Amino acid sequence: MSTVGYHIDAFTGEVAGAQQGEVKRHGKVLFEGKAESVFLTPFTNCGTNNRVLAIMDGVEKVHIFPSCMKVADDLEAISNKFFFTTTTRSPSGSTLEGRVLSARNGTTFASAVVWTSPFSGGEALISTEPVSFGAVASYGRAVGDKSTLYKYLNPHLLVATVLDASKGSARVIVLDSSTGRIVHQVVLREIVAERGVQTAMSENWLVYSYLDTQGWRLGSVELYENRRSGKADT
Fold first, then answer.
1. Which long-range contacts (CB under 8 A, 24 or more apart) does 144-153 make?
2. CB of 196 within 8 A of CB of 210?
3. pTM recorded for the entire structure
């Protein structure tokens, strides 16, 4: 078994390198074995201007695709600040691991675990999504006493959804991927497990939807800095 990377035109579905009428598509073999985790890096390839993928293999090495020495240099420069997560599963439950890049060999990096967050055997980690950021139009919100609530803007935030089908419950967890600290969490009860939970987070705004025994529900949470601690409040 090998892990293969492809260049695909998102508008046409065509695969770069495939000849017209070919059934077999061409890809680049990245490594032998199955990919354990795939995520986007913040950098673009010099030739294609497409965002570069990072893929972790079975021995915890991280490969980049498309391969690019400049991107590898940029990743090495922020290796102690570039956090990503992987999931391990066992009969006792799922564990979310926070990792950073470590030793480099060409365009391949080793990785190291910096924190772990275990879940009970009945809970299944069904999704993890990083916060998205665009141009921040406003950094705060004025309130009635003329003070300002400042948005909790943390680029390391990650939204994890954990489902316990046997209990008909789920948790939507916002955590800091650099430390594993839980910033905020919501417990959902009497949900229809088969429909899951959908989440999205932009800047400091979390939205989630799910189906329970009464119908569809939509939740909305905004995170602001605590005036005393500087951490998040809702």
1. 149/224, 149/225, 150/224, 150/225, 151/203, 151/204, 151/222, 151/223, 151/224, 151/225, 152/183, 152/204, 152/223, 152/224, 152/225, 152/231, 152/232, 152/233, 153/203, 153/204
2. yes
3. 0.80
Strand order in the sheet with 61-65: 37-44, 51-56, 61-65, 108-118, 93-105, 83-90
Determine the Cα–Cα distance for residues 158 and 161; give it in Å rounded to an integer. 10
Q: Give CA 181 to chain center in angstroms.
A: 15
Going residue by residue through the chain (234 aa), what tens digit of pLDDT does each one get?
889 888 887 788 777 755 554 444 567 889 999 998 898 898 988 877 888 999 999 899 999 998 889 999 999 999 888 899 988 877 777 889 999 999 999 999 999 999 999 887 788 888 899 998 877 878 888 888 878 889 999 999 999 999 998 888 999 999 999 999 999 999 999 999 888 899 999 999 999 999 998 899 999 999 998 766 556 666
